[in-house]
Amino acid sequence: MTGSNLSNLLIFILSNLNQIEILVIILILNKYQTYKMIKSGSLFLILTVLILLSCNQLSDKQNTDEAEFQSLFNGRNLSGWEISPYIITSIEDQILVISNNMRSKRGFLLTEKEYANFHLKAEVLCSPRINGGIVFRHNYLDENQDLANGYEFELYNTNNTQNPTGSISGISRAFWIEDTDPNAWNQVEVIAQGDYLSTYINGTKVTETHNRRSYKGKIGFVTQAARVLHQYKVRNIYIKELPPIETISPQIEDVMRSALHIPPISLFDGNNISKWDVVGDGEWKIENGIIIATCPDEKFSFIKSKGIYKNFYLKLKFKIAKEHNSGVFIRHSPDSININLNTGLEINIYDSNGYSYSWPTGSVVGKARAYMGLVDYEEWNTMEVFAFENHICTYINGIKASEHYTSDQYDKAGNICLQVGMQLATEEKRGSKVEFKDIKISDFAKIKMLGY
Q1: Domain 70-241 is in which class?
Q2: What separation, in Å, do the N-terminal and C-terminal C-alpha atoms of the chain show?
Q3: For labelling, which of 183, 188, 261, 358 has a CA lying 20 to 30 Å from the CA of 279?
Q4: pLDDT by residue (tens digit) across 176-193?
């Protein structure tokens, strides 16, 4: 083969390779001494240029997503925005400063354009004592309208609240990232596509849910209706519009409750716990068709289902006193002796009577946070757990408590485990008491897809 033909062939091959593949080719050429033959000629230059081009192409590819984001704020004025009378704005060094006017009405700053499906990014500086919000799919500038026609990404940098920063206010509660500096600039994100909503703080997803309150509307900022000053700052506001969702299918809970008519199986007949194995030192006794579980101080105890389940709808009733601790583990690894957060997902039954507690009843512990106050301590409470593939959703007393798309670690079949544990919020770490009844499960093992 002539030098010219070799050059043309290599140019064709290298132009269709990425950076790593080109480097591999060079190593192979070097091994067979071919590199010595070409290093003094133009082919060496061609290889070098192609590597540099490949680097540039790789860089361009990495920046493709960023390039798709469009600025919502030009840093100079409020062109493209509309403003209500009860909000005060100013611009300082390309930073948008937002304040309330210390009247008892909310103020809004909204985009003129409406958005349906999008990924929104912004940086926010909001001290812990300040309460503000980012609204999206919001449809009214009128300060007399509440937020029930759209959504609010809460800006409230404290854990001692029902709606800390990142929460979709009143709908889905964000968990608190302990290493976040509440007095610094933090990047916040909202992804809305169809009825799926998720929020992020500094790259960490803090809540996600499916909700159908609003599918389209304006994006903007809202101030607190308060007689004291609430001021926060925003910069680098970008949006990327996402493809539309042609059909909004039923939600997981609607399908699994009734649509497929999977008959429930009782996991407790009211007489014995023959379908369960006891793990730990607790006592699990039956009285009047009720499982009554207690455990010693500083201990945990479980009953573990003999059956294993991956895709299912679990419904049960529980009764518990304040500060007493329980939970329902799902998809527990059958081959594991211990039952903990590494072997399965825990749906908590535990409130420590404070908003700052991380995982109240209904939470998927460590993953998705429920609101406080879903438990009635005087009556029986109903828990529902919906699990299909990587999608987990929980309800407490008919209210959606949490929703989570889990990792591969928990996308598997496993045991269901009922827990009674120590009272973690008390100094003495006393044992707890919890009661269970009406434990039923609909097994979706034979269903390949839900169609939602």
Answers
A1: mainly beta
A2: 59
A3: 358
A4: 998 889 899 999 999 999
